[in-house]
Q: What sequence folds into this?
């Protein structure tokens, strides 16, 4: 299949050029000082002003921005306007916008979700998806991959402790012995797929399905990456190398770095092969709270929007430097 200029390839190129940092705009109003919120007509307006300034000032350090829709839904209609305007600002800056929506439904509902997040007011370049209702949930989004060059990250091994409740459950001995005969044509194991080894987990079945989907878009062994990637958190070190080596052609969205406790060295392992982008949200959004140069202004309640944005920009630069340094250390200092 002829390769289309997919959003995922653009993101991979941006990470190679600028570093792997993804700035997460999970911007809750509580992350802003009260005095900054009071300068605007509503908390949603304050968040929008902050987001626009963050996009402008952290762009030199950011390969992409990820916008978590839940924080905006929680602010009601005004919040959804802020969500839409934030996506517009990111894309207008020529930077890849990831909508963190984790959709995962079937049939016409899935089609509506795909239309909502790949067209119109909420249009993004890449979305996050939850495949645990089956791979047919991905199909409407994949239509936009083929038609409009969009992309998707499907949950594989997430960063939360509770992921072990389901993702780490062992597969039955016969789980990998089916024929791959499903309506979507993407369920595991697909023809010529790598066998799922004994001792595998639910997440390994998901990974096999994602590999089967990726192969529909070409052979990426010589470079590039598939237009569908995987969400793999950097809070668990025990299987990071195994996951990276098992799915060499999948570009990873890597949450958990920073505030969730994920280490740069684990992220660096996951950045090998096809690579990935490492998300940091609170560590950047609330950097002003830990900035000693702002201590007096914090205590007097006189912080300005410009000052908290500058603190975020410094934190983004530092995060990028740490991630790039960890990757170089993993490679033994090779450039």
A:
């Amino acid at each position: 299949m002829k390769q289309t200029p997919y959003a995922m390839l653009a993101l991979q190129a941006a990470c190679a050029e600028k570093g792997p940092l993804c700035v997460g705009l999970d911007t809750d109003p509580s992350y802003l000082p009260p005095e900054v919120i009071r300068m605007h007509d509503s908390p949603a307006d304050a968040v929008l002003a902050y987001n626009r300034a963050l996009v402008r000032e952290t762009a030199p350090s950011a390969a992409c921005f990820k916008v978590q829709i839940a924080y905006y839904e929680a602010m009601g209609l005004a919040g959804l306007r802020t969500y839409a305007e934030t996506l517009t600002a990111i894309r207008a800056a020529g930077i890849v916008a990831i909508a963190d929506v984790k959709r995962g439904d079937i049939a016409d509902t899935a089609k509506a979700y795909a239309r909502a997040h790949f067209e119109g007011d909420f249009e993004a370049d890449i979305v996050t998806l939850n495949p645990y209702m089956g791979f047919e949930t991905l199909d409407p989004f994949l239509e936009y991959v083929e038609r409009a060059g969009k992309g998707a990250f499907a949950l594989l091994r997430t960063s939360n402790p509770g992921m072990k409740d389901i993702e780490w459950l062992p597969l039955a001995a016969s789980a990998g012995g089916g024929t791959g005969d499903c309506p979507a044509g993407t369920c595991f194991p697909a023809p010529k797929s790598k066998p799922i080894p004994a001792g595998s987990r639910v997440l390994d079945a998901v990974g096999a399905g994602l590999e089967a989907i990726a192969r529909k878009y070409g052979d990426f062994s010589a470079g590039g990456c598939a237009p569908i990637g995987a969400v793999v958190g950097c809070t668990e070190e025990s299987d990071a190398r195994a996951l990276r080596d098992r799915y060499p052609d999948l570009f990873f969205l890597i949450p958990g770095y920073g505030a969730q406790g994920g280490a740069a060295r684990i992220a660096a392992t996951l950045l090998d092969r096809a690579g990935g982008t490492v998300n940091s949200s609170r560590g950047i959004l609330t950097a002003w709270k830990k900035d000693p140069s702002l201590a007096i202004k914090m205590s007097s309640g006189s912080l300005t929007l410009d000052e908290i944005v500058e603190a975020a920009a410094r934190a983004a630069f530092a995060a990028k430097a740490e991630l790039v340094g960890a990757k170089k250390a993993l490679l033994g200092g090779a450039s």
